[in-house]
Amino acid sequence: MVSPVTVMITGAAGQIGYALAPQVCRGAMLGPDTPIILHLLDIAPAETALKGVAMELVDAAYPLVKKIVATVNLEEACKGVDVAVMVGGFPRGPGMERKDVMAKNVAIYKGQASALQEHASPDVKVVVVANPANTNALILSNYAPKIPKENVTCLTRLDHNRALGQVSERTGVPVSDVKNCIIWGNHSSTQYPDVNHATAGGKSVRELVNDDEYLNGEFVTTVQQRGAAIIAARKFSSALSAASSVCDHVRDWVHGTPEGTWTSMGVISPGGDAGYGVEAGLMYSFPVTCAGGKWSIVQGLAIDDRSRSLMDATAAELKEEKTMAEELIAAM
Ligand code: NAD
Ligand code: LMR
């Protein structure tokens, strides 16, 4: 019999939480045979809504679910957690500067880091979704030194899936046959969606599309701006696609990427050649394969000059965010 896995979702009363919890309970994250203990965390003002979500999950009578804990107590939520999905955060309000949002969120992630390392299982796997996702994950990792660095990641799988979706739309090849796009860098509009190594139906995407102006222009900006486009269309940020991508991220990390394919994950750069020259210690999205519950950066991909400058630009933004976060923490 498979032992239950304890999954925590923070920000569980929010939009992504509402889309994600049912997917986890149906086995989309850990497979159809893995029983789940679900910990849902939110903050006191959202406590009633959180209880409502928990009531609905009970009412759905998911066979995989062994227990649901819905709480506004951080320590209780973190207890014994094997997979932590960090969705909770402070949203950008009208008139707020990037720095104001960053200040709120780095404070939250510093506090949650301590609770996770004290109360979660020692090999907890963490994926940070809340924006700024890469920098929140970096802060969490820095303030939870007992959690192995490689166990803290951030979500860029949504961007990766968006890139696959755009190639599929353009070529008519089903998305299941589009492989090996890459998201480099930050989960922000500076990210670099790269199709130089991608295939569709087994053929090179560059050759099949045969339109470099599109692939270097509109394709890149569409993927970079997709989050903003969803907000403009829905008046809320993406939720079902974010939730689905979280399940993809954790499933591939735990169960492995399919043979011959890679995915994109925000992970700590090792620096040097192994990190494609990205400064060591930045939380940067790379192409990765996963096996045995561990990710590895795909090595040896050829990088042309155009890619190099786009990869460096998004690294520069992450460096700026890191400096800003450190300054904000020092002033706390
Ligand atoms: P939402 O506002 O609907 O929900 C956020 C929830 O977090 C709220 O219920 C809020 O009460 C809760 N929260 C706030 N502070 C908390 C704390 N300290 N501890 C626990 N919970 C806390 O937002 P959403 O649409 O669900 O999006 C959540 C985050 O995910 C946002 O930051 C959004 O920008 C980000 N996002 C990231 C990606 C990605 O691909 N990385 C994609 C979509 C959205
Ligand atoms: C997304 O990519 O959909 C979100 O990160 C957008 C946002 O700002 O919440």
TrEMBL record:
The EC designation for this entry is 1.1.1.37
- From the UniProt record, which GO molecular function terms apply? L-malate dehydrogenase (NAD+) activity
What's a Pfam family this protein contains?
Answer: Ldh_1_N
Q: Which UniProt keywords apply?
A: NAD, Oxidoreductase, Tricarboxylic acid cycle
Q: Which GO terms describe its biological process?
A: malate metabolic process; tricarboxylic acid cycle
Residues noted as binding NAD(+) in the record, renumbered to the chain:
11-17, 42, 105, 129-131
Catalytic class of the enzyme: oxidoreductase
| NCBIfam families to which the protein is assigned, alphabetical | MalateDH-SF1, MDH_euk_cyt, PRK05442.1
Family per record:
Belongs to the LDH/MDH superfamily. MDH type 2 family.
Task: Kindly provide the name given to this protein in its UniProt entry.
Answer: Malate dehydrogenase
Species:
Micromonas commoda (strain RCC299 / NOUM17 / CCMP2709) (Picoplanktonic green alga)
